[in-house]
Write a structure and sequence with these properties.
The chain has one domain. The chain has a 5-stranded parallel beta sheet with strand order 3-2-4-1-5, sandwiched between helices. The protein contains 6 helices and 5 strands, in the order βαβαβαααβαβ. Helix content is about 45%, strand content about 15%. It is globular and about 35 Å long. Helix 2 links the parallel strand 2 and strand 3.
Length: about 150
């Protein structure tokens, strides 16, 4: 891969809106959102899989959900407790499976083919597994990883 590859972005939607996420994606030049949530439904309006995909399509941004790149429930529970190291251990073990590795290969190919962004819930990328996924992809593609911060409501 050449040094001119676009960065791989990540974004969390905690505390924000679909409009703010879409604006951040557009501003960054993202053409594909890769949803890495294990459970692509949300109590937050507009962020469930099909509604989000439709909103992004209307903005000219593609959407793909790669469930195997999501954190298993014990890992999600660990993050809710503030125990990021436990989540990281659980996620690392999860990523040795065939389905997660195949999904990682797909995400890598897509990130190489077009400007992409990984989506999960947590606002802070330091507490979210999407950063781990981005690092795994970047290790293969040599892309820089840029964490987007959508506007938060006042």
């Amino acid at each position: 891969m050449s040094g001119a590859a676009p960065p791989l972005h990540t974004i969390g939607y905690e505390g924000t809106t679909v409009a703010a996420v879409t604006a951040a994606l557009r501003d960054a030049g993202v053409s594909l959102l890769i949803d890495v949530r294990a459970v692509p439904s949300s109590r937050k309006p507009g962020f469930s899989k099909h509604i989000l995909a439709a909103s992004l399509a209307a903005a000219g941004i593609g959407y793909v959900h790669l469930r195997p790149l999501g954190t298993p429930k014990p890992g999600r529970d660990a993050v809710r407790r503030g125990d990021v190291p436990t989540m990281e251990r659980i996620f690392a073990a999860h990523m040795t499976g065939d389905e997660p590795l195949a999904a990682l290969a797909e995400a890598t190919a897509r990130a190489e083919a077009q400007p992409a962004c990984l989506l999960c819930f947590e606002h802070d990328p330091r507490t979210c597994h999407r950063t781990l996924v981005a690092e795994m992809i970047a290790a293969r593609t040599r892309q820089a990883v840029v964490h987007l911060a959508p506007a938060l409501p006042a």
